[in-house]
Amino acid sequence: MRLIATRLVRQLVLVPVVAVASYFLMAALPLTTESDNKRQVSPELAASYQRDLGIGEPLGFLRPWEKLFSGERLGTSAQGITGDELLQKLSGSVGVGLVALPLALAWAVGFALLRTRWRRGRFAVLGDVLPAIAFGTPVFIPALLLAPAVVERGHLLPELCAAVVIAIWPGTFLGTLVGDALETELSRDYVRTALSKGLDPGTVLRRHVLPNVWPALLDAVTPVATALLAGSFAAERVFGLPYFGQLYVLAVLNKQVAVVVVSTTTFATVLVVVSLTVELLRMLVDPRAREARA
Amino acid sequence: MSRIPLRAWVGLVLLVGLGALSLVAGRLFPEALANTCPLGWDLNRPDRSVCELAFGGLWVSLAIGLAAGALSTVLGLAVAALARLSGGVTEQVLLRAVDAVFALPDVLVVMVLQLAGQSLMDAGMGGGLGPFGLMVTSLALVGWAGPARMFRDRLATLEGQEYVAAARALGGGGVHVLRVHLWPLLRPFVLAVFLSRLPSAILTESTVSFFGIARMEPMSLGRYLGTSYAALIYEGGGRVVIPAWGLLVLLVLGASLASQALGGGSRREV
Q1: B267 touching A, CB under 8 A?
Q2: Which residues of B touch A144 (CB under 8 A)?
Q3: What pTM was estimated for this model as a whole?
Q4: For testing the chain B interface, which of A8, A140, A173 should be mutated: the one with the most B CBs within 10 Å?
Q5: Superfamily of domain A92-255, CATH level 4
Q6: Which CATH architecture has domain B6-267?
Q7: Is B266's pLDDT higher than 50?
Q8: What residues form the membrane-spanning segments (chain B) (predicted)?
Q9: Of A108, A219, A229, B220, which one's alpha carbon is 20 to 30 angstroms from that of A273?
């Protein structure tokens, strides 16, 4: 229990660190130069940014979060958003990520099983080539290829396509890991023993092998969850989905500094929650993890 | 030489070949490329052929990947060496910092760093850092944590060997052991980690450039695809996307093959 609490504290410390780091980074931006560069903000807008960030006020660094919780609009123009709108957009992105996660897991298990089978046959090369194609493909490329057929149609099709597109890389990554773990387990003595005692291969796989493979899968779920959520930024941009990724990119492009500060912190919080959940799940399903930590 | 696995050779030849091709086709003889390009002209920039943009972009992407990969590897190596040399609380603090940076998504942090860097450059405070330097620095600042963790773990494993304990018992200091006994064993692993950072840096740069946040000229593959995307959606244009995609895949394939083979080779040596 103490170890779980330590883990919790370690992870949660990340959130204020990100909050303070992103605040001071944004607050330090030199937005008030005399340059006539068109990307520069006007003196009025720069002053507005400083008010928005609470620069010069006592405990000014809390200003973006005060505005967030009091329901005020974050940001200096009409593109600024309220806390409720931020949550709504975040739930859209998380929703796409949650649809993508089972797709990625299904693709991972399927790919791992196929890879194990291919290894003995003439398709062995596919086990190496498919991951290379998936790893070398940024999310926006399949999205771009699908977009002309999808972007004009509604009825959640863009959301579903975004989920499919962002599940490709994590699914292949997980599949490679699970495939390697599966291969290691299949070569162990207990599998040979079970088969020689007359158990059919399906039962051996389901009852004996897979329980030993799940921990490897769970170890990789945290980076995959990060990839799913961050990957949705590009897919949202291409499919025109008005969720958190789109909001974040526009906030950066339009220099909505308070929105960037709060969004970065919110995103880090989501990642911490995901990481903790996976950690707890890992301890729940894998007795060896509990013993290792005890 | 014979200890380098075949897969690593294939990967390295692919990388060097792509680099040479992008230099010759994209930088030295762009006119010849423009005149013979079977893919036609870019939808948004009719003055340039798709091949010119793809191979020119490949050169920029490769240069960014190499520079950012090298810088993040050096940073990671320095942090790992510092952690192992200090030990105790300093090592734990450094490891927690590594965890914190590692937990954040690259794309999101690079976007923030680009915003900050561009504001500094606009204010004339960029210290001579152009868009290329800014992108390399941003990628290195988010990319050092992975190498640092890998190098630290590898150093901890190598330090467990008997001859290292003997060197310490004979009075060898931390820096001496690191320089004379550990570094030769770590070298192939450093190369493998550097090659594994290459695709990651290129893909992160491509995604950030695709959003239109980076201002690099000449355009990288990601920025080229980003500037073409509206035309792609409304007019269709696989011919514009597929060459750049193919080059990215080949680049990542080369780096992955070399990195995996060298990483596996150095693991077997230990």
Answers
A1: no
A2: 225, 229, 232-233, 241
A3: 0.82
A4: A140
A5: MetI-like (1.10.3720.10)
A6: Orthogonal Bundle (1.10)
A7: no
A8: 58-82, 94-116, 128-146, 242-262
A9: A108
Chain B's closest residue to A256, CA to CA, is B115
Confidence (pLDDT) at B66: 92
> Given this model, what pLDDT does residue B1 score?
47
Tell me the mean pLDDT in the region B141-153: 90
Residue B19 has pLDDT above 70, yes or no: yes
pLDDT band at B268 (very low <50, low <70, confident <90, very high): very low
In the prediction, which pLDDT does B82 show?
A: 92
- HEC letters along chain B: CCCCCHHHHHHHHHHHHHHHHHHHHHHHCHHHHHHHCCCCECCCCCCCEHHHHHHHHHHHHHHHHHHHHHHHHHHHHHHHHHHHHHCHHHHHHHHHHHHHHHHCCHHHHHHHHHHHHHHHHHCCCCCCCCHHHHHHHHHHHHHCHHHHHHHHHHHHHHHCCHHHHHHHHCCCCHHHHHHHHHHHHHHHHHHHHHHHHHHHHHHHHHHHHHCCCCCCCCCCHHHHHHHHHHHHHHHCCHHHHHHHHHHHHHHHHHHHHHHHHHHHHHHHHC
Residue whose pair of structure tokens reads 């996660």 in the numeric block: A101
Q: Could you say which of B120, B234, B241 has the minimum Cβ distance to residue A30? A: B120
Which residues of chain B neighbour A26 with C-beta distances below 8 Å? Answer: 116
A38 touches chain B (CB under 8 A): no
Contact B203 A136 (CB under 8 A): yes
Name the band, by pLDDT with cuts 50, 70 and 90, for residue B70: very high
Which of A136-140, A170-174, B61-65 shows the lowest mean pLDDT across its residues?
A136-140
Residue among B210, B220, B229 with most chain A CBs within 10 A, to mutate: B210
Query: What's the confidence (pLDDT) of residue A163?
Result: 92
Contacts of B260 (CB under 8 A, 6+ apart): B7, B192
AA letter at B110: V
Note the pLDDT of residue B131: 86
Q: Given an 8 Å threshold on Cβ–Cβ distance, is B124 in contact with A33?
A: yes
Spatial separation of the C-alpha atoms in residues A171 and B163, rounded to whole Å: 43
Domain definitions of chain B by residue range:
6-267
ipTM for the predicted complex:
0.77
Put simply, the answer to whether B249 touches A132 (Cβ < 8 Å) is: yes
- Domain extent listing, chain A: 1-29+42-80+256-293, 92-255
pLDDT at A41: 62
Please give, rounded to a whole number of angstroms, the shortest distance from the CA of A258 to a CA of chain B.
Answer: 12
